Amino acid sequence: DGKLQILKVSSALFYGLSSFMITVINKTVLTSYRFPSFLFLSLGQLTATIIVLYLARKFNVVKYPNFSYDIPRKIFPLPLIYLGNMMFGLGGTQALSLPMFAALRRFSILMTMILELKVLGVRPSFAVQVSVYSMVGGALIAASDDLSFTAYGYTYVMITNALTAANGVFVKQKLETIEMGKYGLMYYNSLFMIVPTLFGSWLTNDLQKAYDFEHWNNPVFCFQFFLSCIMGFVLSYSTILCTHYNSALTTTIVGCLKNISITYIGMFIGGDYIFSWLNSIGINISVLGSLLYTYVTFRKKSSTTSSSSSSTLLSVKVSGDDYEEPLLSTQNEKSSINTV
What we know:
Distance between the termini: 16 Å
Helix content: over 70%
Strand order of the largest sheet: 1-2
Order of helices and strands: HHHHHHHHHHHHHHEE
Shape: globular
Strand content: under 5%
Largest sheet: 2 strands, antiparallel
Number of strands: 2
Structural class: mainly alpha
């Protein structure tokens, strides 16, 4: 279906652009300006999401269910995953150079591939597996000679990888099993987590650190901080949209393809990247793996694949239209991983 294919590609491009912009803006705010609290920045992003979605619903731009006491049970554990992914992602951005952050984030692809198999029953093709292992292998080589290594930065990124994989898979599951919708998930994830985040910021003295920050009188910084908060909402929306029309693995991969450009541009942002040959070789191997996956995932399906009817089919409701997609990959299928 042509319309569905356009939705798939456009949602993936939208997510990639949003992810690129927020990564660069966050790095500038947290590293170039040395903003002291990634937790406070998370609070700003949650607040922006709540305000924008509340106003959009009030003016009938979007729709999502009214609050009820069973909503936390329906969407759990997504709010916790959502907040953790946001906080540790910002922490990793602050602690690591962008090239290494981008390389290490590719571990989330392997985790997503495993989770999609276990939770959604989706098995990737051999070509997908080869590309994923290439990305992860390159990241390991790069990490083995990272001259700017920080243990807490690596820890933040690996936690983010696990949460990214879990978020992609469970968002997919929740969108298909409850009448919440992508807007409802975004709004209630942020709403339920804003008080714990505010309390955490107060407990760690991050509120005071943010209040005492010296650049609040700098209009350029304030504009970038505002953009970072707004882009948090845009990225959340684009992530759910991309996961809705594509597989969770494809969403994660698009984010990592964005990291190809971030990898090289990031060498000049923040001033914290230290070059070494082994590190550079590993980063480039990981980039080549990303390019291979892009080719495997988005290439045109062969006629034998399109005519195959041996896959299990699942009807999925999207914007009022029903369509069917293969649930499990078949032996003769040449494409990568199927939308569930």
